[in-house]
Design a protein that fits this description.
single chain, Rossmann fold, 2 domains, four-stranded parallel beta sheet, about 35% helix
Amino acid sequence: MSLNLKQGNDVGVILISHGSSLPFASDVFSEIAVKFKKVINCPVEIGYLEFSKPTILQAVDNLSLKAVDKIIAMPIFLADGIHTLVDIPLILGMEKKENDPRFLNGVYPDDHYLNHLESFSFDGEIVLLDCIGPDPLILQILKSKVDDVFINSDILNNENTGIVLVSHGSRLNYNSEFVNELLRMFKDETDYKATIGFMELANPSIPVAINEFLKNNNFENLIVVPVFIAHGMHTKRDIPKILKLPTDIKYIKHSHHHDHDHSHNHENIGIDFNGKIIYLDPIGSNPLLIDIIKQRVDATINK
């Protein structure tokens, strides 16, 4: 049966976020949900993978109370990784989309959370959409953030300014492929000199990327663009620490219960740069991000 937006309660949407031990991510995703609800005519819930409430399954239960018979789950993740290909499908009672690199034999320890998933009562259809990926609108957001620096600062010459797109990194190749594609698009659409660096789990690391970038360019300024949806521990503490920038986020024990085995021993490599580093905010609840979400959900509802 083809569903139409006007049918309202026939379909509900879950916007899935990772969650954070800091409040910034919850604030941003609340803004995203508020803006999204204004442009779509059906119930909308947020579900967090960890750290924050409601959980993904609580979001499913909340929608089941609203008499929906179909749930569209949209991961608000920029690139695929273990969360979108393994964790979230399994939480929603689906087959994982990728072998789990954490446990290649497919067998989880007895105390692993994936062996103790909660059940939910919803018996309708759940459709899990793909993550956002290298959408042209994401490129527009990042480009406009960089353009704004030149408009609102005393930097007049983009020849002496380099752009560094920074991402988290992943054991799977999808994050690296996503950021490399963004870099290609960025170079095609702008005259800026740009490179990429990863916080961990992928190469080049942020210090290595910047040092290599500086070898062939006489930059006075670096604009560092975190390719993240919202601020969290990585953008507020870890990346500034790597860049040797001040941060008011003190050490907080960062223990994922998903057994990622993140070492968080970020490369102790100095960045040989005496110029100015301008560190931008993440994407946030940008209207273009809302447009992407709406396009993906509309396309699924109207199939």
